[in-house]
Amino acid sequence: MVAKDVARSTEDFHALLQREQVTVLNQTPSAFRQLIPVACAAARQGQGLALRHVVFGGEALDVSSLEPWFEVFGDQQPRLINMYGITETTVHVTYRPITQADLAKGASSPIGEVIPDLSWYLLDAALNPVAPGSHGELVIGQAGLARGYHGRPGLTAE
């Protein structure tokens, strides 16, 4: 856990990452955007981070915002991973490593592939599978999916 005053200060948060040798960081993309200039400036002065993985979640990821990070750190160490999820799965449904190649593609919050204990289907309004590249509703299934909302039968019925 990070103290509120440290979490709200990008410089203090970066110092904590260095001091504690944090190897896995889970942040919203907007919080990470605030960290990028501080981490990049420190890295240019030889003050690197121990990070092996940065995991994004909680909001859409603007891949282009990672360009300054990739210029300094590359895309192998740490690995940047975008996660997508919904409440009914208790957080994450998909994962997608993000690379510099995604910048050139103009990728917009790529959600990647389904986590192994889930399945997903992209369906139209009649619940038929849609063609690759089409728009539809994402439907989740298998063991990682909740059976309903605890104590809220009306919401479960929806």
From TrEMBL:
Pfam assignment, any one: AMP-binding
Any Gene Ontology biological process: secondary metabolite biosynthetic process
Protein name: AMP-binding protein
InterPro entries: AMP-dep_synth/lig_dom
A GO cellular component annotation in the UniProt record: cytosol
GO terms assigned for molecular function: phosphopantetheine binding
Residue stretches making up the AMP-dependent synthetase/ligase domain: 4-150
